[in-house]
Amino acid sequence: MSDFDDEFAEAAFPDLLDEFGISFTYTPYNGTPRTVTGIATSAALQAMAGIDDVPSSSVLIRVLSDPNDATYGGIDASAIAEQRDKVTVAIKSGGTPKVLSVVKLMNDDGGVTTFIAR
């Protein structure tokens, strides 16, 4: 990571997690479930290119890339098993948490892992 990536991961993103973060359960394929804090943005029913053509709700989730972060947890992008890992998260604010599949890793930059679950 660059110096900027390090600074963003250590200072800016945790501030965003404090303000907008929600806790959810991340269950890696063949792994132990754990609580992670991230920023979840839900999208209305839509088809996802490269995934399938069936419209469904999805959630874009951003978390720290460091799974050992003592405050927020995190998910190392290299450990994500698309279509196999699961998250239990509310699709909308105040909604009932649902088990969703991690369908696509979107980005791993600036100490932040971004993926789509549905």
**What ranges have pLDDT less than 50 throughout 5 or more consecutive residues?**
none
DSSP strand tally: 6
Which structural class is indicated by helix and strand composition? Answer: alpha+beta
Shape: globular
Largest sheet: 6 strands, antiparallel, barrel
Average pLDDT figure: 86
Strand order of the largest sheet: 1-2-3-6-5-4
Element-by-element helix/strand order? HEEEEEE
Word description of this protein:
The chain has one helix at residues 3-20, and strands spanning 22-27, 34-48, 52-64, 86-90, 97-109, 112-117. It is 15% helix and 49% strand. Strands 1-2-3-6-5-4 form a six-stranded antiparallel barrel. It has 118 residues and is α+β, with helices and mostly antiparallel strands.
Characteristic key phrases:
118 residues, alpha+beta, 6 strands, 15% helix, globular
